[in-house]
Amino acid sequence: MRSLTAVLLLLACVAPGAQATNPVTSVPALDISRYAGQWYEIAHLPMSFQDKCTGDITAAYTLREDQLIGVRNACRTANGETSVAEGLARPVEGHPGRLEVRFAPNWLSWLPFVWADYWVIDLDPGYTWAVVGEPDREYLWILSREPSMDRALFEQIKARAAAMGYDLGPLIMAAPLR
Length: 178
Hints:
38% strand, 9 strands
């Protein structure tokens, strides 16, 4: 009986390592000039700042002369109004697929905690869709250049995100699949 208990304890200790997921990694290359422009959100993990969004969720990125990237997130709310959040993103040195983004006022930009990880973790070579996440797997956005996405493609993208350890059970659909 003791040997069976010891074997079960050993298996319990080894099993989590055997089921470990792939780490979250950013894409090895990101041409920010190709990434810039309008994106439509297809799906996202729940976020408190998106609670009021009911549809037409977009993100627009603009290149600036100071090497920062302008960020404009917009969505339609339940009462039909458009909610807009404007911020900035900056590249992370040595990691082409990683940005840090902030929506806090400029005078707070020196505080490190106002900058959040924004990692492009999956990207179409033609820049027609992208997946954005971060290392703690709390946030995830599936973006497209079009306001809808092919269902088979969406399922492939989800499978790759799940392989990185993202729990997609609470995924919120923001746009139609075709």
